[in-house]
Amino acid sequence: MTSVFSICIVLGSMCVSLLSAEAEITVSGQVGSTAVLPCELQSVGTETPHIRWRIKSKIVFERLGEDTYQAEGYEGRVDVPEEELRKGNCSLVLHNLTLTDEDVYTSYQTVRRTKRSDAVKTKTEEISRVNLSVYGK
Ligand SMILES: *[C@@H]1O[C@H](CO)[C@@H](O)[C@H](O)[C@H]1NC(C)=O
Ligand SMILES: *[C@@H]1O[C@H](CO)[C@@H](O)[C@H](O)[C@H]1NC(C)=O
Ligand SMILES: *[C@@H]1O[C@H](CO)[C@@H](O)[C@H](O)[C@H]1NC(C)=O
């Protein structure tokens, strides 16, 4: 009895550490190279996905269908390709890495919840968190 209990404790703490290791992904890349920050939608509905990537201080990239937003300093370098997003792949592609890109990037999906007579409600869910580190040449 006691041994079964202690096995559960060991397994439990292993599961917790596995989960927390999975919660934050680490990606590293060299200055000037391209990084892909992984992200996968939990479900691909009929609705056009609304995806947002942010760092602590600001939104870096946002896409809803063909409409996109690129933050200052990321112009022309950042994208979630539309055809990938349609397949449920919300990975962020960041070209020409600079040392200042180093940050923790979090992706969010905004889902519309429409009820018959109600106004449209939206819900924002975190999808993935990526710690990006950039090293010099
Ligand atoms: C997801 O998209 C990224 C960037 O477009 C690509 O590099 C990666 O291979 C894709 N992953 C899958 C599983 O298709
Ligand atoms: C990459 O970034 C550097 C510095 O930010 C810039 O000087 C260079 O022109 C960029 N290269 C490309 C291919 O965009
Ligand atoms: C991100 O990764 C770097 C290098 O592995 C580490 O030093 C840093 O503490 C991490 N940052 C966070 C917020 O986890």
From TrEMBL:
Protein name in the entry: Uncharacterized protein
Organism: Pangasianodon gigas (Mekong giant catfish)
Lineage: Eukaryota, Metazoa, Chordata, Craniata, Vertebrata
